[in-house]
Amino acid sequence: MKTMSITILFWLLSMLLLSDKSQTSKTEVKCNSTAKNYSLIPANISKNVTILDLSYNQITLNITDTRVLQTYFLLSELYLVENKVTNLFNNSFSNLSNLEILNICRNSIHTIQQSAFTGLHKLKKLYLCQNKIVQLNPKTFLPLKNLILLNLHGNLISYFDVPQLFHLEFIILYGNPWNCSCSLLNLQNWLKTSNVTLENESITMCSYPDILKCYNIKTVPYKAECYSKFPSSITEDLHIPFQSISNSTFNNSLNNLTRNSEHESHGKSWAFLVGVVVAVVMTSLLISIAIKCPVWYNFLLSYNHHRLEEHEAETYEDSFTGNPSSPSQIPDTNSEETTVIFDQLHSFVVDDDGFIEDKYIDTHELREEN
After folding, report:
1. CA–CA separation, 88 vs 90, rounded Å?
2. Is the pTM of this model over 0.90?
3. Using CB atoms within 10 A as the burial measure, which of 78, 135, 139, 305 is most buried?
4. Is residue 126 domain-resident?
């Protein structure tokens, strides 16, 4: 029994020693590569590094640097102070799940994408001081569930919406050109009602408007109209566009209906007019064809008679014209008869009995018979 208890005690002591040794070894893995004039994060650093200091270099934190950083998954602290970083892209630190401190102060950061801090679930301290940040999306900080300190001093931020950081204890905001209008009222209420401590509160001053430059952002007095307008501004902003949209939609639909009716009426009138014109033209054409067909038919039938022989035609012509030297043989009504005969030769008269008159009957014979 004694040996069993001694063995258990010895095992517990050995486990405690091993855990202490592992913790000491973990805190001791540190790499200091400051002022090395690096333009890229070196890839030959031990993969067991836990604290990596790359300050005062020329690192831009581009895609290549991001890939190298993913290999240092045991990092708990990362320092990139005074480098050449201008953008924090999405998933720049996604594989650093053990990171607790991230310091990127004194760079030229002006853009932070919304998913730049994805994967940093254990991050407790974030330093973004002395950059060129103008605006921050509050959703950028959503992945930072355990963030305790946020340092944003020395940027170009004039407005900052309330971040969804429930464990935040300290925030540093001085050195920014704060616009202390009604839009900053939510931030002031959050600073007053939450447990967050505004570091350097006395020097976190308003820059706009001029009459409020002597106040800090937490104690600036707001007019009663800010309290009355600001909460309802959202509903007002929603109501006005909705009303304008509904009115414009109604007017547009009414105009469309009017235009469509006018267009349809014009279209129908043109179609009706074209139909009438076509009907009139077709009717006139049919009537003209009906009138002309019998005349053409009779005209064709008039050429169905027997043509005279050449010598018969000459004989008929001589007998018709007569001898011009013997005027005594020609009656007094010669001119009138000649005109009648000439008209008969050059026209076709249709008899009522349906037969065609022969134009080559000898007129002298007819006179003698008469």
Report:
1. 7
2. no
3. 78
4. yes
